[in-house]
Design a protein that fits this description.
The protein is of the alpha+beta class. It has three helices and ten strands; from the N terminus they run αβββββαββββαβ. It has an eight-stranded antiparallel sheet, covered by helices on one side. It is globular, with a radius of gyration of 19 Å. The relative contact order is 0.16.
Length: about 150
Amino acid sequence: MKNIFTLVLLLLTVSFYGQEASAKRISFLNLVGNNIQVPRGCEAQSEYELQACNGTSIKWDYYSDDMLSAVFDATIEAFGADNSSKTQVTFTSFEAQLTGFKFKTGEAFQYFLKGTIKGQPLMINLGTPTDITGTSDLEGFLKLFFDTAQVG
């Protein structure tokens, strides 16, 4: 009986603190020390991830140089195995060049970018209904992340 009471108390505590943490809204994204305000009407999953904001999701992860290449290559290989629409892309973000690939998936586009911003290697995963073929296609909050975009 004592074990059941302890278990129930533990579950209630975890549930309470879990709700407190999820109730805390994230107002700014943090891209290598560059604070980007979460757009009105959108909700960040973390300081490094914005999901389903007007149909667009963006997430980034930090790596060492060696890990970045390995993870990026494995991601492109896995994603490209079932998708033949692979196109090279180059974006700039906070004066840093990011290179990668664009894939068409149904009615949406998936972009995987790698590079180094302010000395920090990272990989960006961007999913959007917009076919970004150049800088003029960077609309809405994407202009806060990227300065230029180029295909090919």
